[in-house]
Amino acid sequence: MKKITGGVTAPKGFTAAGIHCGIRNNQTKKDLALLYSEVPCNAAAVYTQNKVYGAPITVTKANIADGMAQVMICNSGNANTCNADGVEKAEMMCEMTAKALGISPKDIIVASTGVIGMTLNIEPIASGIPKLAPILSKEGHADAVEAIMTTDTKPKEEAYEIEIGGKTVSIGAMAKGSGMIHPNMATMLGFLTTDCAITTPMLQKALKLAVDDTFNMVSVDGDTSTNDMVSIMANGLAENPVIDSEGADFDAFLLVVKEICTSMAKKIAGDGEGATKLVECSVHHAPDTKLAKAISKSIITSSLTKAAMFGADANWGRILCAIGYTEGDFAVDTISVTISSPKGEILVCEKGAGVPFNEDKAKEILLQEEIHIDVDMQQGDGEATAWGCDLTYDYVKINGDYRT
Description:
Elements: E1 2-3, E2 14-19, E3 32-47, H1 55-63, E4 68-78, H2 86-101, E5 108-115, H3 122-132, H4 141-147, E6 156-164, E7 167-176, E8 189-194, H5 200-213, E9 229-234, H6 248-270, E10 278-286, H7 289-301, H8 303-310, H9 316-324, E11 336-341, E12 344-350, E13 353-354, H10 359-366, E14 370-376, E15 382-389, H11 393-400
Parallel strand pairs: 4-5, 8-9, 10-14
Antiparallel strand pairs: 1-6, 2-3, 3-4, 3-9, 6-7, 7-8, 10-15, 11-12, 11-14, 12-13
Helix pairs in contact: 1-2, 2-3, 5-6, 7-9
């Protein structure tokens, strides 16, 4: 597995573009992105489990029910959610895109992100799509990433290549996410591309397995978005032997998808609204994996723990508290907690009780931009890692007047 440049356009046959079309008032921010494959793709996706979900999800589910897609169109600045004409507008986006590219409107993944409950003005999109199609290029991935961002402060993209069946296969990704992020699939928008030859059922399986251990292990603020979606398109241009069952080739493909999704998940957590620190929590030797996941999520979603991380306060009691209210059957008197960063590590709890430690050293460790919380339960083989961020004053500032 080798890291490469190019994001979603790294795989063969994919091009992208992004522009400001006028959905946003700020003309310096791009707000419409297009991703295109020169040939039809097998496609798969996972969606939010929020009962209130955006119209684009309804349309995308219908469009890729046959397991096929060729294009992704996404706007930022308006979520197109809780609107009476939402589905109509999402379908119009597909029809306009199809016309511009000469494809079927049913071969399109459509997405929107931004404010909930505001009617989507279709006119800027109608004027923007014809401008996007002619500028599709391999270099357009950077503009596309920028166009899907909302409160994100950093673009999020990744690409890798790996040899499968004697052929070089590439996988790329771009994602957005900064707030309204909580584990419940998928915690943001993510778009993956690959030139791998793989059937739709195996593509769906790989995506679901990867998401369960990555995007579903991220929380910024405890709120599951209405528009969460992660999709993947595979156009087969790498010409590897088709992956149609589990085995060595599928395992290699899954390895890269998980690596990309892990990278995207960490970037999203580290770029949480108002965040100053990425907080990673790993749970080891839990009774089982399900419990390890639940405990790691409980810790990174604890508002008190997040606030302590912001204040560089090694208040380990908050970590134990979050462990303790996690549902499940486990003991507490075997648990140890270690906090670490590039400045070192320090044991703060052993066998469920505090141990003497140097507060100044702990503070130095917690003042870094990436913090790791390691929980050893000593009760089994369950392992899991979750990602979150600190809770800062700026989170309230950003969300206090987000709409107005």
